[in-house]
Design brief:
The structure holds 2 protein chains of 2 kinds. Chain A has helices spanning 17-26, 46-53, 100-110, 134-141, 186-200, 209-218, 252-261, and strands spanning 2-4, 7-9, 28-32, 37-42, 66-72, 78-86, 90-95, 116-119, 124-130, 142-143, 154-159, 162-167, 176-182, 204-206, 266-272, 282-284, 290-300, 305-312, 322-327, 330-337. By secondary structure, chain A is of the alpha+beta class. Chain A folds into 2 domains: 2-215, Gyrase A, domain 2, CATH 3.30.1360.120; 264-341, Aminomethyltransferase beta-barrel domains (Elongation Factor Tu (Ef-tu), domain 3, Beta Barrel). In chain A, the strands form 4 sheets. Chain A has a 7-stranded mixed β-sheet with strand order 10-11-12-13-9-3-14. The radius of gyration of chain A is 20 Å and the shape is globular.
Chain lengths: 348, 127
């Protein structure tokens, strides 16, 4: 077990991280992600508030849509990344565990009249069910069928008497979904999914933090504190696509100024031979000059590559650029590659 | 957990097994289990001479990178090339196919300074 954002969470279960990664890519992985926070925003002022609060376009969202967004500060720095669900009479916003309190304070500080913000994190449990057979498993166990839902939408389902808000979303690059339900049903539902998976012949296993990290890394998704953080602006992290410059949002003016001045660094993916790149390792150019550093790095089990995400000088962000990663004092050959290393199943 | 009774052990969990005058070096079953999934092994060049207690390479698991230490002084006469393509061999069979080095020892007397299998078993709580 390892401390993570104030929770004790397994790095891996008995299966081991590499096998857990493989199970999620071939069948179904279960992720106990109750540490994630959920806020519900409602009231007559809610739509305008959420639109200004988050970077992504939300004005066009109608139920049952769900969308990825960033939460920026006035400098355009990334406070958090979020999933925003448009419910019939409210907004359901999922935030990272480590940011729950600061996010809530930020929400409250920026909410005007007519906005109600409820922290639903304690009463809500969250499990992700991810993998190429995840939808098949949930269809077999619950009703109505989640296969009827499009990617990035939500629906209300019932699994063995447990009422679930199901989002066809996730953090692995596989199909599947994220389940929100009463915390009192957590142990029952977790065991039910594993037991029924076994009965149905659908391999379904619990997945720990290490595989959660390698799955999201291969699929090109950011992890707060690594590719995004309050020390990183949205543009240098390549999140212009998650910012709607046609609307007003917190951080917009700063990002426009940053874009006009030119970026000082860019997030790139690099592939390394001769070692495992890890967070904090320096990047050098061909001449040996330090040009950046890794924010995440690991062995990627599905694509079978040693890879890192790194911030480097903007001129070095083209795929094919030769670089070096300094691994314990030794410069190792590296090359900038296109992200993601693993194209998510639902985008193929 | 298995402990190879024919090998001797360093406190840093490398084993040294004498086979016809050559010392076979790897990491113990206990060590591989503690490290978890091994994803990369860096080994020295054949012909290099390295003193006991000095690092000869690195083993990288999903979790972390760990230095490897020579259990005895000597010259590297072979390294396990299979570990480049399949580092998880160290997890699957640490004492057999997951060996790392073959060393021409400088002095066999250094083997006496290593722990016996029985003593090593005690230090890792297996006895």
């Amino acid at each position: 077990m390892a401390p993570f954002a104030g929770y004790d969470m397994p790095i891996s279960y008995s299966t081991g991280a590499i096998e857990e990664h493989a199970i999620t890519r071939r069948s179904v992985g279960l992720f106990d992600i109750d540490h994630m926070g959920q806020f519900e925003v409602s009231g007559p002022g809610a739509d305008a508030f959420v639109s200004r609060l988050v970077s992504a376009k939300v004005a066009d969202m109608a139920p049952p849509m769900a969308r990825y967004s960033l939460l920026l500060d006035d400098e355009g720095l990334v406070l958090d990344d979020l999933f925003v669900y448009r419910l019939p009479n409210s907004w359901w916003i999922v935030v990272n565990a480590s940011n729950r309190e600061t996010d809530l304070a930020w929400f409250v500080a920026h909410a005007g009249a007519g906005v109600s913000i409820e922290d639903r994190s304690d009463e809500t449990y969250m499990i992700a069910v991810q993998g190429p057979r995840a939808i098949e498993l949930l269809d077999a166990l619950g009703a109505p069928k989640v296969s009827a839902l499009e990617r990035f939408t939500w629906g209300r389902i019932d699994v063995a008497g447990v009422p679930i808000l199901f989002g066809r979303t996730g953090y692995t690059g596989e199909d599947g979904g994220e389940l929100f339900f009463p915390a009192s049903k957590a142990e029952f539902l977790w065991n039910h999914l594993i037991d029924k998976g076994a009965e149905l012949g659908i391999e379904t296993k619990p997945i720990g933090l290490a595989a959660r990290d390698s799955l999201r890394f291969e699929a090109g998704m950011p992890l707060h504190g690594h590719e995004i953080s309050p020390a990183i602006n949205a543009l240098e992290a390549n999140f212009k696509w998650a910012c709607d410059f046609d609307k007003d949002f917190i951080g917009k003016a700063a990002l426009e100024a940053i874009a006009a001045a030119g970026l000082k660094r860019r997030l790139v993916g690099i592939e390394v031979s001769g070692g495992v790149p890890r967070e904090g390792y320096e990047i050098a150019d061909a001449s040996g000059r330090i040009v950046g550093h890794c924010v995440a790095g690991m062995y990627c089990p599905t694509v079978k590559k040693y890879a890192a995400n790194a911030f480097v000088e903007p001129a070095l962000n083209k795929a094919g650029t030769a670089l070096k990663v300094i691994i314990r004092g030794q410069p190792k050959d590296a090359v900038v590659v296109k992200r993601p290393l693993y194209v998510p199943a639902y985008r193929r | 957990m298995s402990i190879d009774a024919n090998a001797k052990y360093a406190a840093s969990h490398e084993y040294a097994r004498l086979e016809g005058g050559i010392v076979v070096v790897g990491i113990s079953d206990h060590a591989q289990a503690e490290l978890g999934d091994i994803v990369f092994v860096e080994l020295p060049a054949v012909g290099k001479t390295i003193a006991a207690g000095k690092t000869f390479g690195t083993v990288e698991s999903v979790k972390a990178a760990s230095d490897l230490y020579m259990p005895v002084s000597g010259t590297i006469v072979a390294v396990n090339e299979s570990l480049q393509g399949d580092p998880a061999l160290v997890n699957r069979e640490p004492h057999a196919g997951g060996w790392m080095l073959k060393v021409q020892p400088s002095s066999l007397a250094e083997m006496d300074a290593l722990m016996s299998a029985a003593d090593y078993a005690k230090t890792v709580g297996e006895a």
